[in-house]
Amino acid sequence: MSSSYVPFLLLILCGHARGRFISDTQSASQDLISDGVHHHLSHIPRSYLTLNPFSVDAESTCDQTYGFLPCTTTVLGNLFLILVYGYLMYLAATYLSNGSEMLLEILGPGIIGGLFLPILGALPDAMLILVSGLSGSTETAQSQVSVGMGLLAGSTVMLLTVIWGSCILVGKCDIENSIAIDNKDTKGLSLTGSGVSTDIWTSYAARIMAISVIPFLIVQLPQLLNSTSGRHLAVLISLIVSVVLLVSYCLYQVFQPWIQRRKIAYAKHKHVISGLLQHLTNQGRLLTEDGEPDGEIIKKLFKTIDQDSDGYLSFSELRALIVGIRFDEIELDKNDAVQKVMKDFDTSHDSKISVDEFFVGVSKWLNEAKRAGNANSDPGHRKMKFLSDFHSRTKEEHALLGAGDQSDEVVEGAENIKWTSLKAGLMLLGGTLIAAAFADPLVDAVDNFSDATSIPTFFISFIALPLATNSSESVSAIIFASRKKIRTASLTFSELYGAVTMNNILCLSVFLALVYIRGLSWDFSAEVLVILIVCVVMGILGSLRTNYPLWTCSIAFLLYPFSLALVYVLDYVLGWS
């Protein structure tokens, strides 16, 4: 017989080999020998050996969510489930975002844009926070609620650091005279010569975001005062304040388009005033040596505008004057501009302007320009420098308010409004159902993954979950910022600030309600400190300026690893929690 067949013969002869434990106790070594005898631990003979799966404790168990969804205790298995459920939450966020935008195009801002859009945008995060504290006993909820806090902190930090900085990088344009020039990017990675500019509304959004951290400060007061008796009351007060802020913010969002239109209309009217004064000044000096309005010059100018010489300026004569003035290529509604001038000058309300009314009106405009411009730098008022200052400031205010731009989006004609409305409704319904159905399994998978890897649930949810719930709006923000325009940059950063504001009031309201109703302990000092630092730093940066050179993105990027390191040091080195 050839020696090559010997191994196969030995395998056949050993086909019924058994094994047993080397030691006599179950707690000792689990190494096996070949006879299969195990007298001390089992009285039932077996014909085979059962080995435990690799790296899994034999006593480990898991509960199926809803009684049928899969669960596992292995590291790779839970990682797979996190990816699957995370992708489903991403789909939910995408459906909610797309459905909201479709409704906004049909119904416009106001109730839809101001109330439903912010709430629907925060719905996936709110769902995850809700289920993290609802399931199981109080002890289980206390353990899993750290998933909700990790998501809340991670979402806020990611939007204000990684996404904010990325939008600066992809949206940068050349900065000239402290304003980024649309679609002009020739200076490369210049830290000061390249960057992004936004309108003044974006600064308002940043200020609101900074104010929205007030509930975090309230709930932390007992810890700051080292008091244990008032913690439950502090949670209740913070919950009430966050709900009040939520209602106030939604009302602001509803009425903000009206406020914005009013401010833009006022800015355009000031621009008309500036343009008319500049035009009249070119025809003759409007002020005397002592800085008072020159009546003779102003009346002569009145006669040049009064084409029919009837002693009054009519609507058509004013319109001819305004049409002939070039308002720095800023589009104005000429009829609306004439009506506002008529309203300022026509004190007798007879739809025409007399020479005396013209003199009073021009004098009032000149005094307004003196207050707004730097009249003190021009003693004697010979050069009328304050007028050029006033003109420059009105142009800057006009640009900051975004008054010169309408929309960069081409809204499709409402040829099939019913179908679009139905599609938007189905997307919103589908997104809501997916978020509601798979938020609980995702929280369970994160909790099981934490048990299998001994990694705290906070860090898993801080890093991983925001990628699922905020990835849709993050990608959308970066793409929108890449259009390299002041308007698109303004909308992008306003949406980021708005998303963080909803995290700080809506998602926190859900979290605080869970803590209060279920009697959970508030032990998140390090996490709250991280949220406060990031929101305050980025809120101050966003509210004090409308121009962001490229170096500002380094502040945002550095805050992300700083946040992770701070929580680790405070909780696991200094033992805050």
Walk me through this protein's architecture.
This protein has 577 residues and is mostly helical. Helices cover 65% and strands 4% of the residues. Strands 4-3-5-8 form a four-stranded antiparallel β-sheet. A hairpin with a 2-residue loop joins β3 and β4. α4 packs parallel to α18 (486-517) and α5 (138-171) packs parallel to α19. The longest helix is centred in the middle third of the chain and has 53 residues, at 231-283. The chain is elongated, with a radius of gyration of 34 Å.
Coarse morphology: elongated
Mean pLDDT: 77
Helix count from the secondary structure assignment: 20
Can you write the helix and strand succession as a string?
HEEHHHHEEEHHHHEHHEHHHHHHHHEH
Q: End-to-end distance, in Å?
A: 73 Å
Question: Roughly what percent helix?
Answer: 55-70%
Main sheet record = 4 strands, antiparallel
Order of strands side by side in the largest beta sheet? 4-3-5-8
Percentage beta strand? under 5%
Annotation, overall tally of beta strands: 8
Low-pLDDT parts are: 1-59, 377-383, 406-414
Structural class: mainly alpha
- The radius of gyration over CA amounts to 34 Å
